[in-house]
Fold each of these.
Amino acid sequence: MATPLTLGLRGLPQEEVILIKTIFRLSSQWLSPQWSVVDDGPVDVCIADSSSWNDDVQQELSGVARIPTLYLSRASNPEIDAVLMRPIRADALVQWLLDTARQLETARKAEKTTQTRATTAAHTRVPALEMPSHAEAYLDHDSRYLLRRWPPAQIIGNDPKRLRITSLLSKQALQVNELSSLSGASLDECEEWVSTLLHSELLDTRVGSKVAVISTEMQSSGVPARYPSASVLPAGQPPKRGLGLMRAIRRRLGI
């Protein structure tokens, strides 16, 4: 059975609050009984105006955990990873909620596994795995990296900076320099840890210019590429599923 999830609406005009609740009601066959919209109290996921993004980032840098948030905006903002352009499209909103629920479920299972292992090895200092030197050559500052699964304890160790970097990568795809800015770790520390995660096949990569050139050169020479070994996700790739969902929602909304 899916874990119940709550959605909060923050800083939105009343007409958008009514619209989102209407979309929820009309999309109940996909969202219920897992999802519910609440007016106050703690929530698992949030929809907010894009004007609050900077404040959310600053709070996260100060140590406040940030929940998955979809930001509504009338203008594109490349800095915000999860943004939905106004006017609100019902199909895009529902698709984001379904994808977010799946990601949260995966993260909770990984966290539960990690906690079980940590309990078994309580009070044990775990040395962090040293980064393989040959992995660094394939690190690309133009690429964005997204965590596929939480690293085992023997890899991440007890390093607070690595824990923070990994947590950021589990929420959104980031470049190395963005990681350094958000995590407070130095650029060298971020490069080292991202390279280690790449080598351990724990990251998905949205290809930047450097990796694309390396891949092309290796393919033309007949040499199979070993790194980055994580799967490559083209930036901006639309979800493959959900076409039937979109049509059904539009029919029920009369659009």
Amino acid sequence: MKNTVLFDLDGTLVNSLEDLKDATNYTMNKLGLEQRSLDEVRTFVGNGVDMLIKRAGGNAQYDFNEASAYFREYYNENLCNKTKPYNGIVNVINVLKNKGFKLGVVTNKPQFAAEKIVNYYFNESFDVIIGADLSKRRKKPYNDPVDAALSVINVNKNDAIFVGDSEVDIETAKNMDMSFIGVAWGFRNEIIFANEKYFVRNSQQLLNLCCNFL
């Protein structure tokens, strides 16, 4: 039986797309660039804030450091405006915690934002939160952030499950040689899980699978 579950954040635990779109368009407006639609931003996320900004900016000429500062300033103040946990996810976390599972978040979102969102919605239920920007540590799909999370909670990768919604998460689990569960409610089409052994369409399926994963 597994005793640990590591979760991606955006598109897995919470639907943060509207707030990410607002921060992106605030930044684009400051730079005098084209506004981006929700569907466009959906395709831009997954590889961290820097890549989100670069994808949104396209081929336009602008000061990237200035753009990054605009985004982070706005997002820091507005990251919980519209962001909400997916249906049933709070219950999943509470049940797993009560059953004695160790829980972690591993995300390419900036550390400040990851901590703020996770602690706001999940009442410090997680044993470790690993985001980006704390060091020169590489982001998912590299092993570094998952290795860091497992090290903090002193867990072997064979005792853990990784849960995510994107191609980056699939690749992360493969690079780690870890058990993986894909969630179909996130920012990508469930077709990306066609070759995966486990994927779920609702939170109850996720809870059942985590509790009975051999």
